[in-house]
Amino acid sequence: MPAYPEPFPVNLLPVTADLAAFAAFGFHGGETKLLDPATWASVAANAVAAAAGAATATSAAAALTAAVAAYKVDPVELAGVPPYLDCHFSDKAAIRPSWFTRASTAWEFDAKGILQPAAINEPRIGFDPATGRLRGYRSEPQRTNLNQRSRELGNAWYTATGATVSSDAAGGPWGAATMDKIVESAANTSHYIVSSGMTVTAANADYTASCFVKAAGRTRGTLRYTNSGWASGVAVNFDLVAKTVTTSVIGNGAVTAADIIDSGGGLFLVWVSGKIDTTSGASTSGFLTLYNADAAGALSYLGDGVSGLHAEQLQLEDGVYPTSPIVTTNAQVTRSADSLSILLSDLPGYSAAEGSVYAAFTLNRPGNFSTTTPIEIGDGTFNNRIGLFINNANANGGFMAAGGATQASLTQGGGAAGARRKAAMAWAANDIAFAAGGAAQTDNAATIPAPLDRIGIGRNNVSVSGMMPMFVDRLTLFNRRLPNATVEALSA
Predict the structure, then answer these.
(1) Which among 227, 256, 444, 464 counts the fewest CB atoms within 10 Å?
(2) Which is it for strands 470-478 and 267-275: parallel, antiparallel or unpaired?
(3) Residue 33: which H helix or E strand, with range?
(4) How large is the C-alpha radius of gyration of the chain?
(5) Rounded mean pLDDT, 317-331
């Protein structure tokens, strides 16, 4: 879908039922379909006519009725004025080649929950692999996977103890049968694989270990990130049935965060972040160990010689949260940062005196770590800028700075990692409003920064080094200061 201009105001029709009846018309579960008003009657008639048999036709009609009842007004219609930028990040075509850079390849889930490659300087449009829901443009910082042979767990890079590795034993995140199986022995012992050592720049710095896993007779296991000899480090203990995790520390290790993420079809990403040794700032060797566990979660038990866990993409990266897969073979690999930036000179209609912004986005990391910027209009410095943010307390916010001084910083609401958020902000001299699902927060003493010359999406306009991973699925900018009631309605 083109990024600009929109040919007409559009309606949002969420289709949530009777997938077979609507499949012929391009509707898929969890998606939002964009329809112009003239298309409504046609869709209704065609949906019923295409159904095979009275029962299906009745079901199709009922589903359409429910969808109409769930009708949501598009942001452009709510505003009542045309935007000067309206990006629906449901397709890479929404992003002009001159706007985006990334100096490496990358991976992203498609609507079927399968990881697809993105070439150098190719933006990623992501979907939730468990639900198929569109998540939009993916923005991530630069990260390096220190672990080699990330998808080859039977390689000599790993040592198996009390277990063997059966290669390419099950379908995984790449769709094909590329997940390896850690098959436990029939002995009463621990059953695991451990990586070779990797150089960690500082033992007291945060690193994140992650791996895709799937049950293969065993539904519990443990992923550890430790130093040599397992004397110190952190661990995440996971239960694939309950979809829960607990954490533990070894020696002087310290856990920062951990989680289990449903990736659909019985596949899960398990991860833990933390410090190997809080008492040392020196470099050290880090090791990743993946254990099978019995039904009680014990790591040492009598195996049956056939059960285990399917696993793939064992990753170790610096930072406090996992990012998208960085595939390695015989050396560590770095994925560069995503950078989406638009020059205001590309967008006729921008007003330096007033404006409004609406954005829908998904924060793809736990809260309480660092400020994230879904959208920022600025001049390439922190001195002059307007934008939306999520602060380190996980609250949504709107901010403005002029001449290096904060003019407005308004916050409201929050949200869990993986939850879609909506926020809107409007501004004119001494007249600022922000909302994220509640009553508009206002500031009546603000100077509008000028001149501004660029828009950063999923990043600030100064540096990509401090980015947090997120998705942006809609961004709409207006050259008028919308009323407070409209700001509230946009974010509702």
Answers:
(1) 444
(2) unpaired
(3) strand 32-35
(4) 25
(5) 96
Straight-line distance from the first to the last Cα atom of the chain, in angstroms, rounded to the nearest whole number: 24
CA angle 490, 65, 39 (to 5 degrees): 70
CATH topology of domain 75-140+338-491: Jelly Rolls (2.60.120)
Q: Where are the domains of the chain?
A: 11-69, 75-140+338-491, 144-335
The pLDDT mean for the chain works out to: 87
Considering only residues 191 and 230, tell me which one the structure prediction assigns the higher pLDDT.
191
- The DSSP 8-state label assigned to residue 72 in this structure reads B
Check if CATH label 3.90.580.10 holds for domain 144-335.
Answer: no
- Look-up of token digits 């050396």: 331
Give the integer Cα–Cα distance in Å for 428 and 10. 27
Of 327, 334, 329, which Cα lies nearest the Cα of 173?
Answer: 327
pLDDT tens, residue by residue, 200-226? 999 999 999 999 999 999 999 999 999
Task: With beta carbons less than 8 A apart as the criterion, state whether 205 and 199 touch.
Answer: no
Q: Which residues pair with 209 in a beta bridge?
A: 272, 316
Residue holding tokens 């404006």? 355
How do residues 155-166 score in pLDDT, each as one tens digit? 999 999 999 999
Instruction: Check the CA dihedral 303-309-312-316 and report its sign.
Output: negative
Position 259 scores a pLDDT of 95
Q: Give the residue-averaged pLDDT of 291-315.
A: 98
Cross-strand bridge partners of residue 477 = 85, 357
Asked whether this chain's domains 75-140+338-491 and 144-335 adopt the same fold, the reply is yes
Of how many residues is the chain composed?
492
pLDDT of residue 393: 81
Residues 6+ apart with CB under 8 A from 83: 6, 76, 476, 477, 478
473 has which bridge partners? none
- Contact (CB, 8 A) for 209 and 235: no
